[in-house]
Amino acid sequence: MARTDGDSWGITESVGATALGVAWSRALEQNTECPLFTDPYAQMFVDAAVEQGWQPPPAQMAERIRSIGGYAASRTKWFDEFFIAAGANGIDQVVILAAGLDARAWRLPWIGGTVVYEIDQPRVLAFKVDTMRRHEVQPTARYIPVPIDLREDWPRALRDAGFDASEPTAWAAEGLLPYLPASGQDLLFERIHRLSARGSRVGVESFDAGFFEPGYLESRRQRLAEYRRQAGEEDPNGAGGDAFDVQDLWYTEERTEVTAWLTDHGWDVTSIGAADLMDRYGRCAAGEPDDTTPRTAFVEGQRAC
Ligand code: SAM
């Protein structure tokens, strides 16, 4: 499971499977009584992956860790609002980094003329595009997949695909940064900055402020393993008990603080911590131990100069 330079994956393998995990949690949210967002495509992706032999986590797992379901739903909602606000301010060029099975290009009410570029590994985007095509689903914006690894020269691939760096862009990095080494994260932001015209916006799920502190990660690992074990015991199929821990796919290194970096580079920045965001959406992790609520923040930057 260890990561290597230049590793690659399909949708049911390694880091690719984390995109399925997110789709699975969005499908669960979609089926709640009062969902924070509408994503009819998440279940479609899960079903297509199950056809390929992927085994979703047992539903009992989400029941048990309410904070995980609440976190994933709040994160999706925050990025939905980020893009809608960018559109309301006239930004019609969007780049979703590590898009995975994000279905925003098919489900958000984009302003007329919006182009959505999605970057992810080739086999991940191929699975997604193929699933949408098989279900004859049409995007709500002009959709341009850019299949390339983010450790490669993606700015060139983006430009070749039609991206215009002289126009303001709305960028998103959701569920991405731990899968890049700290140096790769620095390079990512340098590139975003270079490609951002004045007025551009960036939405980031940031993992600084102690997220990679070993004691925190270890207690999180142990608690999640225990939840998985209990969920596996309750599941009639016995699934879940031996699932891998996503931490094994992360580069657990302290990183440049995103808010400080953006501020230093002339972006106006606002930020909200995960617990406050979940509270805002009525998804607070009441009764759950702190170490299941990720120590993340949701950072929005606007390029002022
Ligand atoms: N942003 C999506 C969402 O929230 O639904 C997907 C999040 S998923 C946890 C992580 C995604 O990052 C996967 O789709 C994976 O393929 C992508 N990813 C991670 N490292 C990458 C890299 N070096 N190049 C391209 N994609 C990468």
UniProtKB/TrEMBL annotation:
The Gene Ontology biological process terms listed for this entry are:
methylation
Which residues are the signal sequence here? none
Q: What is its EC number?
A: 2.1.1.-
- Keywords, alphabetical: Methyltransferase, S-adenosyl-L-methionine, Transferase
* An annotated Gene Ontology molecular function: methyltransferase activity
Q: What does this protein do?
A: Exhibits S-adenosyl-L-methionine-dependent methyltransferase activity.
Q: Which family is this sequence assigned to?
A: Belongs to the UPF0677 family.
The protein depicted here goes by the name: S-adenosyl-L-methionine-dependent methyltransferase
Give the taxonomic lineage as stored in the record. Answer: Bacteria, Bacillati, Actinomycetota, Actinomycetes, Mycobacteriales
